[in-house]
Structures are given as structure tokens and as C-alpha cells.
Write a structure and sequence with these properties.
It contains 3 helices and 5 strands, in the order H-E-E-E-H-E-H-E. It has 124 residues and is of the alpha+beta class. The relative contact order is 0.19.
Length: 124
């Protein structure tokens, strides 16, 4: 009986933890969207190797194809943060929300620091 009496306290402690976690989640954004960063250096002259779906009404650049180049090199070197078809570029070198400028930066900047959002599995 002593054992069962201890359980409610354990439960109460366990339940208090997620509340703190939720508070942290709100600051970092949606917990359902997993973001990751990629840095691609075009100084070597290698092509980017990414095809994106450009639509002016969007605020992201979804990846529709990986065609070799830096994207493929990155994927080989970084198995834990691979660029995948369906992932969306949300920021390019500090610019977000304007896909036209983001695309210009992809074309013109030598080093690209990209922030991407992983595609959610249930969308496919």
C-alpha cells in the first residue's frame, strides 16, 4: 500500500514539467515545424543544385528538386540535416518573407546561410 500512495505524487510532479516546456515552445515558434540551417559556399564555382518553386504570393521557397552541386555535397556531408524535396527555405542570409529577394540572394551571394523547415510527413 505504501507503494501506491507514492504514485500520485510522482504523477503530479511529471505533469508539472510539460507546462514549462510549452512556455519555451511558444518563444521558438511552432513545435510541429522542425527548422534546420544549411550553409552553402559557392566560392568554388559549384552550382547550387537546388530547384525551388517560386511563387510571389508565398513567403517560402519549397524545394522541388535536388540536382547535384552544393546541395548534394551538403547532403553527403550532413546526413542529419539533409536538404529534402518538400522542405521549404524560409530565410536566406537574414532575409525572410520576401521570396524575390531571397531568390536574388541565392543567385548572387557567394555564401548562403539558409534556414529551412522540414516538410511534415502527413502533407504527402
Amino acid at each position: 500500500e505504501k507503494h501506491s500512495a507514492a504514485q500520485p505524487e510522482e504523477l503530479a510532479r511529471a505533469e508539472a514539467v510539460p507546462v514549462v516546456d510549452d512556455g519555451g515552445m511558444k518563444q521558438t515558434g511552432s513545435s510541429s515545424a522542425k527548422t534546420y540551417c544549411v550553409v552553402l559556399d559557392k566560392a568554388s564555382g559549384t552550382k547550387l543544385g537546388l530547384d525551388v518553386d517560386f511563387m510571389t504570393e508565398r513567403v517560402v521557397l519549397p524545394i522541388i528538386q535536388i540536382t547535384g552541386g552544393l546541395a548534394e555535397e551538403w547532403n553527403r556531408a550532413n546526413p542529419g540535416a539533409q536538404l529534402c524535396i518538400g522542405d521549404s527555405i524560409v530565410e536566406v542570409n537574414g532575409v525572410k518573407g520576401d521570396v524575390a529577394i531571397m531568390l536574388e540572394k541565392c543567385k548572387n551571394d557567394k555564401v548562403l546561410k539558409l534556414t529551412l523547415v522540414k516538410a511534415l510527413a502527413h502533407e504527402f
